[in-house]
Every structure is written in C-alpha cells, then in structure tokens.
Amino acid sequence: MDERALQIAEAELEARFAGRIRATPARSDPRPQGSGPPNRHGMPRLPPHQLERQGWPVLDLGIVPRIPAAELRLTVDGAVARPLSLSRADLLALPGAAAEVDFHCVTGWSRLDLRVGGVRLSTVAALAGPRPEATHLLLHGHDGYTTNLSLEEALKEDVLLVLTAGDAPLPVEHGGPLRLLAPELWGYKSAKWLARVEVTTRNVKGYWEKNGYSDGAHPWRNDREARGE
Ligand SMILES: Nc1nc2c(c(=O)[nH]1)N[C@H]1C(S)=C(S)[C@@H](COP(=O)(O)O)O[C@H]1N2
Ligand SMILES: [Mo]
Question: In degrees, to the nearest 5, what angle opens at C-alpha 94 toward C-alphas 90 and 97?
Fold first, then answer.
C-alpha cells in the first residue's frame, strides 16, 4: 500500500471508531477519581491510590526474551483482509509517531511523561485492514504473555508500537525491541516483547484478565480486580 492509500485507510478506520473512542471511560468519565491537574484527556494526572515514581520500574512474569532487533518480526493476523509479517525495517518505513505518555501500573505506581517513539497501532491496523466483524485484539508476547484490547481502545492515537524510549532503543527489560503502550489503561494491557497482534471477532481474555485483574482496566475508576466480568 502506498503512503497516500495508507493515510486514507487509517483515516477511514479512525472515523469508523471515533464515536466509540470518545465514549471510552478515559475520555468521557464525568466523575473520574484521582488527583492533580488534568492530564492530556482531562482526567486527573494521578489515578486514585497511585504513587508517582521517578524511574521506570520493571514488571513482568520474569521471563526476558532476547530478540535481536534485526530479527524482529511482528505478525498481524486473524480477522484482517491482509495478514502481515513486519520486520523492523518495515515498521521504520511506516509513518512514525512519538508521544509523551503516562504509564499506570495496577500495583500502585505511575510513571508520568515518558517519551516514546515508534508507529501508531492504528497505522499497522489500517495496513492489515480489520474485517467488519472484528471487535478486539489479542496481543501475544514472546514470553507467552497475552492481553486483550477492544478496538476502540487499541485505535486511540496515543497507542503506540514502541521502538524507542527517550532517544534510545527501547531497553529489553521494558519490552525491547518492540512493545505496545496503551497509556489510558492499566499497564498490563501494554504487552512487552510483542510478537503477534491477533485481530478477533469476540473478546478473548489475556493472562491477567483471566487471572484476577479487570478486563476494563480503567485507572480513573479504580477498576482493578475482575468482578466476574
Ligand atoms: N510480555 C509481557 N508484557 C507485559 C507483562 C509481562 O509479564 N509480559 N507485564 C505487564 C505489566 S503487569 C505491566 S505493569 C507492564 C510493565 O511494563 P514495564 O516493565 O516496562 O514497566 O508490562 C505489561 N506487559
Ligand atoms: Mo502491572
């Protein structure tokens, strides 16, 4: 797909989901909990019961896959018109994106104003072309981790496939060479060492969503534990 066609496909996909994106809790909650001045979307900068940390803590299941950047492959498959297998060079050839984001871990820490770069997930989604019946994604990490996202959360402009943090390649302990970052949801939605984006036609829960944490994962509603969803 040439760059112009990709831009159009991405704009069409965003238009299809614009209403649902605006209605997500992190953009529409009339009474969000938390403290501090408004963040980029009008929510309090710190969700309830969170403590700001200066560094960037590391949290995962303890398996650290080491994928040389040159061997990176991202599979995008499932309910899509065009399944993809993207190398790092393929990702770098796409329109790039950078963002300053806040990162909130459900265990109580928040790291504010992280500078990250890469490619918007919506760009890669547009390239693959989710079929009309697609509703969710299941993200797969090289460590066997999984997490699920609704398309209205996944297609937000601040959801990035992250290749750099600060001015450096994303460190391996934070999911390098490639991770996802979904800053408006609890950190467990932000899959590290991303191997595969599976587009699904129903909500298939991931590791923590099946093991006790909330599937909605909305920080400003203190939405932490699964409640028999
Ligand atoms: N592949 C993979 N991704 C993962 C995890 C994991 O165990 N494996 N843990 C999640 C959790 S619970 C959090 S809070 C963040 C932590 O990211 P960080 O270590 O970069 O702070 O990664 C998320 N993504
Ligand atoms: Mo977490």
Answer: 125
Residue 123 has pLDDT above 70, yes or no: yes
Provide φ and ψ at 65, rounded to 5°.
-70, 140
Give me 155's structure tokens. 């297609």
Task: Provide the CATH topology of domain 3-221.
Answer: Sulfite Oxidase; Chain A, domain 2 (3.90.420)
- Mutating to test ligand 1, I would choose from 51, 109, 192 the residue with most ligand atoms within 8 A of its C-beta, which is 192
Nearest CA to ligand 1 atom 11: 188
Q: Tens digits of per-residue pLDDT, 127-173?
A: 999 999 999 999 999 999 999 999 999 999 999 999 999 999 999 99
Q: Rounded to two decimals, what is the model's pTM?
A: 0.97
Assigned token pair, 85: 């297998």
Q: Is the CB of 67 under 6 A from ligand 1?
A: no
